[in-house]
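Sequence in, structure out.
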Amino acid sequence: MTDIAEETDSEHYLLQAKVRTPEMEMSVLGADVAEAADLDIAEINPANPHLFREDRWQEHFARLRNEDPVHFNELETAGRYWSVTKYDDVRAVDGDWETYSSAKGITLGLKDYSSDGIQTFIAMDPPKHTEQRKTVRSVSAPSNLRNIEPMIRERTAALLDSLPEGEEFDWVNTVSIELTTLMLATLFDFPMEDRSKLTRWSDIVFAIPEPGGVIETQQQRIDELTECVHYFDKLFQERRGNPGFDLVSMLANGEATKDIPPFEQLGNLLLLIVGGNDTTRNTMTGSVYGLNKFPDQYDKLLANPDLISKFVPEVIRWQTPLSYMRRTATRDTELGGKQIKKDDQLLMWYISANQDEDVFEDAHVLDVERHNADRQLSFGYGIHFCMGSRVAELQLRVLWEEILQRFARIEIQDEPERIYSSFVHGYSKLPVKVTRK
């Protein structure tokens, strides 16, 4: 096993740099964010995490879509970046990897991620991206989904049967985290007794260091991700030459990934951990919260469970669990009438594109009968379309099929606590009570 504890100072720096969050890049921004209507359009900066923790992002993006759809910001700490907020423009950027590259990172920041250190295939362009993605894509093949659905249903049913009736509990920790962590441990063939480590590693990737926060220092992040490297390196060694049908075996034996050193392999591991955990769990929570915000839609779903097939893509649209992805311009170009310079960053705001009224009528409403919900961009578009999208949809479908069989209602008891991030759009707590049929 590689002795990660004896990394050079430069490797420590790379580990620190690779997991920088957009909020850390913009530490100059304070907590006091003016309301959208009070700001000059040039002052709007939608990447401020306070807007998301306080659930005040909606009007900022509405103004940008209406007044400045390709919006420029520049900060000393984050450099030049454009916020792309309209549906068609986001698709145009996401669908043109030759002009808008992923290879310099997927979150706001200045570091050239292509040089060395931690890399992940979501932050690569073809052909390297294609080769590494192909290594693990069979996990979401239709045949595998059919194989794992009975297991997902059994686990979901058992967990829902265990919930207390008439007593307040936290839906995030009790249901969303537990179901997604069980699924993730299965996909990795990860020891079930240690599955909470997967949740922890996922949580710290984009967490902002702050007193009492998920992590308090950047060094804490480095230390815990070093543990992640050690743990998975042991699993890699066990499965080389003795593979199963799991993500670790695929990475350990795939032609494009088997020779990647443990430290550099961390990028792909974190991509799969975050992709399999944060996005699904936050949409599971968002589905309960959204139906409580729009009780008439909850009534429709209760009356007609066949609407689940439309509800799943709709709640993924409404929630949008990852707010944006970044691209970097490979040449001078034009987008939406704006002159984009080579090496400019572009933030494709999926959360705004999914609220575009030119595509989704009454976009702020969770509509379980929405006819075009499957056009949502939460999974991206083009070559980087989310590889695990079908697994996420399967988990959400099964969850609500089992919920509707058991509960007359799941009622929220207070507003949720939200994650302090402009990248991961999610929840840290949602108090609820359930009433059984």
